[in-house]
Amino acid sequence: MKIMPLEQRGISTSRLILGCMPFGGGWNREPIEQQHILEAERAVDAALSIGISMFDHADIYTMGKAEETFGHLLKARPSLRDQVVIQSKCGIRVAKGQVPGRYDFSKAYILESVNGILQRLGTEYLDILLLHRPDPLMDPNEVAEALGKLKSSGKVRYFGVSNMNSSQVRFLQSALPEAIAVNQLEMSLSKLDFVDQTVHVNQAEGNSVHFGEGLLEHAQLQRIQLQAWGPLAQGAFSGRSLEGESERVVQTAALVTRLAEAKNTTPEAIVLGWLMRHPAMIQPVLGSSNPKRIIACRDAERVSVNLTRDEWYSLYVSSRGHALP
Ligand SMILES: NC(=O)c1ccc[n+]([C@@H]2O[C@H](COP(=O)([O-])OP(=O)(O)OC[C@H]3O[C@@H](n4cnc5c(N)ncnc54)[C@H](OP(=O)(O)O)[C@@H]3O)[C@@H](O)[C@H]2O)c1
Question: Which atom number of ligand 1 is nearest to the Cα of residue 184?
């Protein structure tokens, strides 16, 4: 059986990840309420109940409150820390006064960000740190100094990136002593660029594809774990209101429902299973905080193993809305 790139690096974890972006209330500086902690606890318990042991954060989610909320859960249940893999991200700075929102891979900012993340989560180490979005001013040697310091101090075990193409990954990797372990990007049955990129080589239609050329192949060759954000397509094919949606989305949602019925599972499992059927062994980062919806994802891996080629292509072609070349 094929194993995930993360497992090949010795990180034992679940195929599904729970994204913690909704935790902690709104994106504001208002204090966390008990209700937010209870909601996060229910979501985490639902995830644990279906075997999810990996949790995705970023320092900016709800302005730090997502991590702080998770920190409350860890404090209440200290034994949880060793049972889960915690990943967070840094490198995005929110707008402040006259300075716009921006990216910052400077050594000082990376080190300061990780201190903040650890403090909010109330943990001594992060399993994985991702650099959130490519900083045009990044200097790989400077990033290497920061990551080296985080590694040697035991604050971070593994490193990765997010929203980077393979050239950017290679550029950064050239200075890093350790292999980049993760790249997290938007991929789903509605965000099809990752597949379209493979299909439209040497074609004008490929000009409108928004996904790094060779990214999937490079990741597989280098054993980089690809993670998909937005994997449920925000519910577009699994029960969200279809009012005002295109015929393409309506037809694809109907196909997802038919397949779910035929396989005795949920639409969520079909949508995720389609993504996980790709040989890159993609890890979906679920964005739901609704316990029922999280549990509805339980069968995703089983579906991915049993989804036929015909079924996979039927879903892909239906969602792209026109025939393959
Ligand atoms: N690296 C990056 O740049 C980046 C960017 C964005 C996100 N992320 C990560 O990826 C995670 C997931 O992203 P995402 O939230 O875009 O992904 P998603 O899993 O595709 O969407 C989840 C959202 O869709 C809603 N939803 C799902 N099914 C629904 C249905 N049937 N009816 C109504 N609403 C439905 C959920 O609401 P409920 O909560 O009500 O289920 C939730 O708001 C985030 O938590 C974060 O960890 C990373």
Answer: 1
CB atoms within 10 A of CB 325: 10
- The CATH number of whichever domain residue 12 belongs to comes to 3.20.20.100
Rounded distance from Cα 294 to ligand 1 centre (Å): 11
- Nearest atom in ligand 1 to the alpha carbon of residue 57 is 47
Active site residue 125: no
Question: How many independent structural domains does the chain possess?
Answer: 1
Cα–Cα distances in angstroms (integers) from residue 165 to residues 43, 47, 194, 226, 246, in the given order:
32, 30, 11, 12, 30
CA of 21 to the centre of ligand 1 (A): 8
Question: For the segment 27-81, what is each residue's pLDDT rounded down to a tens digit?
Answer: 999 999 999 999 999 999 999 999 999 999 999 999 999 999 999 999 999 999 9
Report the nearest-CA residue for atom 35 of ligand 1: 235
Q: Strand, coil or helix: what is 217?
A: helix
Nearest CA to ligand 1 atom 29: 235
Q: Which domain holds residue 55?
A: 5-235+275-293
Q: Which of 231, 126, 109 is nearest to 181 (CA)?
A: 126
Q: Which amino acid, 273?
A: G
pTM: 0.98
Could you tell me if residue 307 is inside a domain?
Answer: no
pLDDT digit string (tens) for 217-252? 999 999 999 999 999 999 999 999 999 999 999 999
Name every protein residue with a CB atom under 6 angstroms from any ligand 1 atom.
19-22, 56, 162-163, 184, 229-235, 238-240, 285-290, 293
CA of 235 to the centre of ligand 1 (A): 8
Neighbour tally for 296: CB within 10 Å: 23
- pLDDT exceeds cutoff 90 at 2: no
- Backbone phi and psi for residue 263, each to the nearest 5 degrees, phi listed first: -100, 10
